[in-house]
Design brief:
There is one protein chain. The chain is of the alpha/beta class. It has helices at about 15-30, 95-110, 170-190, 200-215, 220, and strands at about 5-15, 35-40, 45-50, 65, 75, 80-85, 120, 140-145, 145-155, 160-165, 195. It is built from 5 helices and 11 strands, in the order βαβββββαββββαβαα. The N and C termini lie far apart (about 50 Å).
Amino acid sequence: MKQKKMLRWIDDVPRNAVMNMSLDEMLFNEYKNEPILRTYYWDNAYTTIGYFQNSKDTGGNKFVRRFTGGLTVNHRNDISYSFIVASDFWKVYNQHFTYKNIHFAIQRALEVLGISSEVLDEKRGDISSIFCTKTFYENDLISNGRKIVGSCLRRRGNKLIVQGSIHVDLNNDNRKNFSKEFTKNIAEFLQIEIKKYNLSNYDIEYAKRVAVEKYSNPKWNNKF
């Protein structure tokens, strides 16, 4: 009997920027045949920058370079996510499709918590800033004139990873409720069920190796 495919949901504990980025890359590298949604948090204030950003643009602040694109993001109380999926479930090479549907799933989850937002249908205003939340691109989520959701991605062959952050002020219970609703919406779109997954010792040790080789290495973080 053929095994039913599931959405693996990892609702992770707060971690530092090096481990959060390392875990995302580990999950991307180790992707087999089931979509993964990891929702995660930060144990302190951190800055991440996009893969192609010039390290000099950070003004000397400490940062970790992501392996996805996008702009500078200051993290502290935001909810972040990584979504990993292959072409048998998703239009991997359609960027508009990707951002539109993920952000719509986020928008619906926020509505459950009483937070309304709009999905932009075009670029708006100044897009010259190095900061993600200060730029307004198509499919970004805006609430009360403020950008609250932006995402970035990377493809490799027939698989895709999307990383993003939700900048809303929620207590711990509502953070968990949001993550649950967001995951439910993604699973409904994929038309598959959810399987809660906890990171294994193998996962953590793999990510620690990635951390040493890349995200805690100045050669990587000052790449450009």
